[in-house]
Amino acid sequence: MSSFLLTCLLIGLFIAVVIDLLKHRIPNVLVMGLVVLGFAGNVLADHSLGIWISTSGLLTGLICFLPLHIFGTLGAGDVKLLAAVGAVVGAGTVLTAALMTIAAGGLIALAYITLRGGFPDMIRRYWKMFVHLFYQHPIYIPPAPGEAAGLRFPYALAIASGTVLAVL
């Protein structure tokens, strides 16, 4: 991947993070711009192989996070953003980025919950679930309404962090 393409990707991710933090949305125009950039950059660099790199990366990114959207844990913008990253970096790198994104998202979620004062409540809930599991009566105790662990947070920061970890 060229340094120009990488720079454009990082700028696009930065813009996505800022907009997601402010508006809890990732604009389709931004996502499509990254997809076009990925296809154009990869085709210019590798001609017909570039089409394969971008297509396989886009589909891999889409497949990685689409189930999370279907089950209601991620927004559609987050899925589309990872697919756009895939169009730029290709299938292998976007798979690594998805795994790094999940790890970064977990750390960001812990920080988010802690900053909102919900860490003790979360530990109590998980302890109760662990005790039930130990006695072979597994249960899931959902967060109480308004509890920090039950709130959504902008995931573009996790996607950007995971992507940076994967490409550097």
Structural write-up:
With 168 residues, the protein is mainly alpha-helical. It has two domains: 3-116 and 155-167; 118-150, no CATH class. The chain is built from seven helices and no strands. The chain has helices at residues 3-23, 28-46, 48-70, 76-89, 91-115, 119-134, 156-167. Helix 1 runs antiparallel to helix 4 and helix 4 (76-89) packs antiparallel against helix 5. The longest helix has 25 residues, at 91-115. It is elongated and about 60 Å long. The model has no long low-confidence stretch (mean pLDDT 93).
Features:
168 residues, mainly alpha, 2 domains, 7 helices, 77% helix, elongated
Using the alpha-carbon principal axes, give the shape.
elongated
Tally the structural domains: 2
Uncertain residue segments: none
Order of helices and strands: HHHHHHH
The end-to-end distance, rounded to whole angstroms, is: 11 Å
How large, in whole angstroms, is the Cα Rg?
18 Å
Structural class: mainly alpha
Please indicate the percent range of residues in DSSP E strands (runs of 2 or more). under 5%
Put simply, the count of helices is 7
Compact description:
The chain contains 7 helices and no strands. It is mostly helical and 168 residues long.
